[in-house]
Every structure is written in C-alpha cells, then in structure tokens.
Amino acid sequence: PWHTNLCEQRVGRWLRAHKNAVVATKGCHYDLDDPAHPSRVNEQALRQDLEESLRTLGVETIDLYWLHR
Q1: Using CA atoms, how far apart are residues 20 and 36, in angstroms rounded to an integer?
Q2: What are phi and psi for residue 25, nearest 5 degrees?
Q3: How far apart are CA 57 and CA 69, in angstroms?
Q4: Cα separations in angstroms, 7 against 10, 27, 43, 45
Q5: Which of 52, 53, 61, 62 is most open to solvent, judged by the fewest CB atoms within 10 Å of its CB?
Q6: CB atoms within 10 A of CB 56
Q7: Pair 63, 23: CB distance under 8 Å
Q8: Three-class DSSP category at 43
Q9: Is 52 exposed, middle or buried (CB count within 10 Å of its CB: 0-12, 13-18, 19+)?
Q10: 1-49 tens-digit pLDDT
Q11: Could you tell me if 40 and 28 are in contact, meaning their C-beta atoms sit under 8 angstroms apart?
C-alpha cells in the first residue's frame, strides 16, 4: 500500500532538492499481516524492497542498506 513507504516518499522529494546526500534505507521487514512468517530476509524480498526504495526515493543507488532482521 502507498502508506507503507510514506517516509521514503518525503525523503525522496528532499533528495531531489539536495543532490549531494548519502542515501541509507532499510528493507525486508516482516509482513505485519502474516506474523506467523516473520522473516523476509531472502533474495526475492531483498530485491523487491530495494527496487521499491530506489523508485520511491527517486535515486539510482543506495549507499547503505540495512535489514530489519
């Protein structure tokens, strides 16, 4: 849903105005709707979340990437 990355949307707007920033974000948070399967730390989820962050932030690269788990 659109509201799950609201912070990244706002940061993305800021980044477009400030080109010399170091970009850091995180991904692979477990699915809040499916607590029985808490781990999303796998290649598919990582790629999906990373691509979403790149699109949302409007950048081509992310300098630092943290995993939730």
Answers
A1: 41
A2: -155, 180
A3: 22
A4: 5, 13, 24, 19
A5: 61
A6: 19
A7: yes
A8: helix
A9: middle
A10: 555 678 888 988 998 888 888 999 888 887 778 778 778 888 998 999 9
A11: yes
